[in-house]
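Sorry, can you check?
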Amino acid sequence: MTKDNLKENNTLELKQIMTADIKKEIIAFANSEGGTLYIGVDDSGSIVGVDNADEVVLQLTNMLRDGVRPDIMMFVNVSVEIRDGKQVVAAAVQRGTARPYYIKEKGLRPEGVYVRQGTASVPASESAIRQMIKDTDGDKYEEMRSFNQNLNFETTSEEFKKHDMNFGKEQMRTLGIINTDGLFTNLGLLLSDQNPYTIKAAVFEGTSKTTVKDRFEFSGSLLKQLNETYQFIDRYNRTRAEFSGLHRIDIRDYPEAALREALLNAIVHRDYAMGGSTFVSIFDDRIEIVSIGGLIKGLTVDDIMLGISLPRNERLANIFYRLKLIEAYGFGMQKIFGSYEGKAVKPQIESTSNAFKVILPNVNEIATGRLGLNDNENAIMELLDKEYSVTRAKVQETLSLSQSMSIRLLKQLTDKGHIKPVGNGKNRKYIKLK
């Protein structure tokens, strides 16, 4: 080989000496169309050679083995060549099958992933990295390699421990949290404490989104979000007491089974390849749970009502099944609707190409006709659910209200037809009409 044909191009890189930056050149070749890197040749193509070729070969192979992920060595052939009577080290690189390759300490980010562009090795864009992952790992989001490889699993580990289940490297590999190359998958990302997807919950005054009373955003492992979001919703799932003869019957605004299944459905079946948060909106008369991603192609709302299930995140669903959070595939919607059996209202489902919404009606709002009452009015009605009658003084003391506010609220409820006064003066009491 002569000086004239040693000229850098998209498949040839020249280095005069061994440096740490050589990793990115090898990575760029493996992520692109392959190429050859020479050590001991300057930028002009002149052969300068290396002093100890065997030592350089060992240094290069160790650097690639320890500093590049996934394992790139089966696609790199390092050898010693004699050029112009001098020793040079040649690294012939093939296009790898586990792209993208990246610098271990930098991770699956543009600063760690390089591609060949003309005579330069440049950071890959995030979209290019995603495309390489998709080309290599397939279309299933949960099986693709995670961009973030610095993950820990404190919450998930605790959940497994509660069920007397091990959560070590072997179990992670079996569950699909770690792939065959020892790298974390997106399933691992979702279960990790670093999970970037969140659930946003908001409580609204009345039946519209005009006034927000409370809001929160839940982050971390999906298992942590599930527990914390359910606890948040449960705080607003009030209990109304009814009496049947001598027996008291407590009825919650929302059947617990419906809330649980709707929330699990939103977490397990959402499309995590799309950005955005899962939304929980709590109104006086309903709860709406919206998850990103419509139904899987070919599946209809009628299909899922019949119990047909095609889980978008099969491995995630399997983990929830192992943790006994879901009993079996395909029965979630049937449980939601079954929990409203005998009620005057039924849940609703809305689906578009990009979103799936479950609407759970408040059975007590409909049953009692209390739709549109404010918090203080509802508190008085709940007091009357427990007692046959109340006085103005009782309302004032129990709800910590002023005398004038108590009188105003009782008049409002009287005018709306919910209560009526009985007696006069100090003996006046109020009883419930509906």
Observations:
- The chain has four domains: 3-136, 141-188, 199-366, 373-432.
- The chain is about 35% helix and 20% strand.
- The mean pLDDT is 90.
